[in-house]
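Hi team,

Below is the intake form for Protein ABHD8 from Urocolius indicus. Please confirm the fields before the structure is written into the shared record.

FORM ID: S-0412
PROTEIN: Protein ABHD8
ORGANISM: Urocolius indicus
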Amino acid sequence: SIMLTSITDGLLCCLMGKTTNAVGPLDSVESSNGYSFMEVKPGRILRVRHSAPNHPALEGPEEKQPGGAERGTVHCKRKITVYRNGQLVIENLGDAVRSEILHCQNSSGEPNSTVELELSEVTGQAPAQGSSGTAGCGTREAAAAGKRRKRKPKKVITIDCKKQITSCKGTHGDVVLFFIHGVGGSLDIWKEQLDFFSKLGYEVVAPDLAGHGCSSAPQIAAAYTFYALAEDMRAIFKRYAKKRNILIGHSYGVSFCTFLAHEYPDLVHKVIMINGGGPTALEPSLCSIFNMPTCVLHCLSPCLAWSFLKAGFARQGAKEKQLLKEGNAFNVSSFVLRAMMSGQYWPEGDEVYHAELAVPVLLVHGMHDKFVPVEEDQRMAEILLIAFLKVIDEGSHMVMMECPETVNTLLHEFILWEPETPAEDKQG
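The structure came back. Fields below:
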């Protein structure tokens, strides 16, 4: 009957030129149970789940620990050179904190090392240099570096800053965790994480993207471009941000976290990227099923939902079907889905953009993910200055729903992580 209704609606949509909208009128606009509605622009209203701890008085003493400010300070100094042939050379000149938990070989973690990459390569492919082992792992010394450096570079970027990274205790009143979902999801996909961190005393914020969940769904495609959605996330961030903010994104939501971390380097403390893919500029696919007319997509929506269940979860049992339903995943209108997929255009978000980030990043990857290959997250770990990659063997694309305990533990460990300053180790 669902298929029949879908086909009928699709035919009506084609014949009458109507566009369907999965988001109905809101029954209530009051802040009850932690949900509120924020008007980011006139008529553009986003649902936000926000919960704050009731004990800000506990934040004072721990902030003023003697020597605490120095212990977590990392000197971020790197030089990024882009050559005319598309070659990208990254030199870490300072004491970069490299991950010791990358799930791959050759992760040497030397502080003064060089990474070479080809910007022109397809996302997720290993740089064709023969000498390297696993794709996107660790750092590599430049072979024939002297010869290459004689070429005239197209662009040279130098980053020199000091970043203080402290552990975030749940009792602190200046820490906020932001959770941003991807295409076809809603803030409900984060239910287990929001409940877990709220109970620990963290302030949490999770919005529904425009056209998703209970947010308003404008019927113009321009409302769903990367830039329009990024501005929405900027408004949410500015409304709730405090001194130390941690951004957690899933899939497409990772791009908005990267954008905010780049825009607000002094406010973004740490970033967590869950199945976000490689550090490449976003560009919509020309030969995608989502380029079909909205009415055809509407007819296909039950098939798309089934396909999402197959590709998004490692198993497709009753539990996973229930999770998909409860998380409102893939429960958006065909118009919104089409506009979201065709609006993924962000040329600025390339490898250089990601290499400029000085914020610590945790990459979480579900091994069975059919949307994002593990090589893409390995490549992201290589490009970023301070990166940790954790692969969850039993998870897929919706890993935070499939394996909530594992994901919550990983996230919490990273939130509490504080680096030892390499300079201190050398002196000692």
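SUMMARY LINE: The chain has a mean pLDDT of 76.

Thanks, M.
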